[in-house]
Amino acid sequence: SQQGEEDPQALSIQEGENATMNCSYKTSINNLQWYRQNSGRGLVHLILIRSNEREKHSGRLRVTLDTSKKSSSLLITASRAADTASYFCAETSGSRLTFGEGTQLTVNP
Amino acid sequence: DGGITQSPKYLFRKEGQNVTLSCEQNLNHDAMYWYRQDPGQGLRLIYYSQIVNDFQKGDIAEGYSVSREKKESFPLTVTSAQKNPTAFYLCASSIEKSQPQHFGDGTRLSIL
Questions:
Q1: Per residue in B78-93, pLDDT tens?
Q2: A27 near A93, Cβ under 8 Å?
């Protein structure tokens, strides 16, 4: 299977700023999911957007999906130092997820 | 609290040795997964199971084996045939395929 690509690979911002991460995928998806991973820990599910949805919100998170371009973006508003982590998108096709390489976000206090 | 427990947290393997990583969940999930993560990279699927007594190979199954005798348990054996086993191994489960996955906190395997 093929992995999606996240852009940028690394992002460093100041607390209070917004962070945008992009993901491109390759298959026809059932849904696309975003996960967060703190250093040395397991992944935590953040949000799922279905293939027939274009935008979804959860607290300070906003996810968009463009199936014509096979791309998704994750926006974190009013970032905090505690948001520092790696963020992964995962395309769902059939019975499995395929994860991207991730974006390492650093939020400086 | 419900969740996934992986053990041990750190594991060391000698040359020619098989080692088994434990994964237990009390979420009553049907599907379970094993992933490998190398430094600075994403997750690659080793094996997955959608139901007890059934499992399928993922993208990098060579050198690994699994069993699914109980719904709660999905152990992974890293065999001596896996020549580059040093990595972070993550177990996950979900209610069913394509639904959000819950992850354990991983096992870090190194070579002695």
A1: 999 998 999 999 999 9
A2: yes
Given an 8 Å threshold on Cβ–Cβ distance, is A100 in contact with B98? Answer: no
Of B4, B50, B101, the CB nearest to A97: B101
Higher pLDDT: B97 or B88? It is: B88
Q: Which of B59, B88, B105 has the CB atom closest to A1's CB atom?
A: B59
Tell me the pairing of strands B31-37 and B43-51.
antiparallel
User: Where do we find the tokens 């996810």?
Assistant: A63
Q: Taking Cα atoms as reference points, which of B18, B13, B32, B8 lies closest to residue B102?
A: B32
**Tens-digit pLDDT profile for residues B1-14:** 679 999 999 999 88
Q: Which pLDDT tens digit goes with each residue over A61-106? A: 999 999 999 999 999 999 999 999 999 999 998 888 999 999 999 9
Any residues with CB less than 8 A from the CB of A10 and at least 6 apart, and which? A103, A104, A105, A106
